Amino acid sequence: MKFSKATDYALHALVYMIHRDGDTVKIPVQDLSVALNVSTTYLSKVLTRIVKANYITSTSGAKGGYRLQQNWENVSVYDIVVAIDGVQTLFEDSFDHGSECRIQAAMMEAQENLISTLKNKKLKDLTV
């Protein structure tokens, strides 16, 4: 599982929003892009994916911006990865050996451990 630049930006933007009380205050994309030193256009596209997944809300206009949804503390890192990159597999087995393939079994175990870790790591854990 490779994490994209978009996922990296999304997680950093969310942590920034948390530190800036983004659950009560709308944070303009310009503020986020300056703080993260990334393109406003690209960051807007990334944040749109998080809005579609219902982890943040957006308001357009002069007083617009992004705000964390209620219960943002319960959102996992895995939720954000999936919202940005979709569900991915760690390993593609080129051979059709089935469940007895020890290589595939080892890789699937590693993937399950990674997913479990990311599901257990909540956004609130990234802000401590």
From TrEMBL:
Q: Which GO terms describe its cellular component?
A: cytosol
Membrane-crossing segments per the record: none
Q: Record's SUPFAM superfamilies?
A: Winged helix' DNA-binding domain
- Any Pfam family from its record, for instance, is Rrf2
Sample GO molecular function, one term: DNA-binding transcription factor activity
Matching NCBIfam families: rrf2_super
Give the protein's recorded name.
Transcriptional regulator, BadM/Rrf2 family
